Fold this sequence. Notes:
This protein is mainly α. Helix content is about 50%, strand content about 10%.
Amino acid sequence: MVAIVILRQDGNGNLYDQDGHLRNATGQKLDAQGNIDFTYNSLNTRIETLGTKVRKLEMQVVQTGDTVKRQEALAREVGLEKAKHDVNMIIDDDFWQVVKHEKLGEGEFEVESSMSFGGSQWCRPKSIDAHRSTDHAEG
């Protein structure tokens, strides 16, 4: 932080600020003996330190914001990859392999309901008992 100090010079060459405090050529406040005012120096140092800390905190906030944005993007990407994986698992499911290799006898399979997945169809077998009960009429 920079403070502008306007100095006036008296007839003896002494420099004074607007409040009438004695200053040296660099603008530092002097005490009655002409020594640099310790309170002024200490306060100035603390202000500079505080400014440095504020700049560091601002940088951390920016970095944290960037990190959060990256993590959110990664989470969205992971979620999308998980969804793609789930779809691929359904498409590549071993269920289709079981249906292809299962040997069914004639008359043991009747379509009760079906669903279409793209070019494939899924059929649910009717139980053998249910199939037989429809074939024989009781007399």
